[in-house]
Amino acid sequence: MKYHITNNLDYVIRVKISFSKLILDFEKSKKKSQIVTITSGRYIKLSDKASHKTAPIKVRLIRVELPKGQVEILMTSLLDIKNYPNKMFKSLYYKRWRVETFYDELKNKLKVEHFSGYSRQSILQDFYAALFISNIQTLIVSELEDEIAEKNKQRKLDYKINTNLSYGFLKNRVIELFFTENQIEQPLNELKQLFMENMVPIRPYRSFKRDMGKYRSRTKPKITKNQKDSI
Hints:
Layout: H1 2-6, E1 12-15, H2 21-29, E2 33-38, E3 57-65, E4 71-76, H3 88-94, H4 97-109, H5 120-152, E5 159-161, H6 163-171, H7 174-179, H8 185-197, E6 199-201
Helix pairs in contact: 5-6, 5-8
């Protein structure tokens, strides 16, 4: 928060109810919004930060009610209630969801943490190759948006591209796509057809309970050289 303030940046941050007694009291109060002053905790390391333990920060707490009764507490620098009413924060915070799902794609679909070597160059090559594949997949999907929207008009449920399968189709054809002597249209059209043939339905109001301990025991991938799936 101090970093954002120093750089004249506003922020919206989700905090755990156990973050501090101040947050706990706010959650119990059932208030929708409250402006409070917080200070750095006793055990927060500040030696590498341009701050001081006693430097107070004024923040606004927002209570967000989720569909199944859960409560999220947001902390923001947007203190003006008239310009930034409470009702806007639920949709504003939801916008971060696509960022979080992209992290999931990078880590679990593109296996960005599974490096093929141990040198800095190997790691950077693997990382940027994963981003490159993701960008190409996004470009192909964007070209199919109008066709998908037209087909969805004829269906009971809306459908979307199966991200996991689309990455697999692309990884198996990326060399042909960019290094073939033939026209690029042939492998590109083949990819588009595969994307369209393997779509999945979007089920409205579907949600999954957050498993807070799901990755707690997760260890970093241990992989020997040259054992990574090629991209």
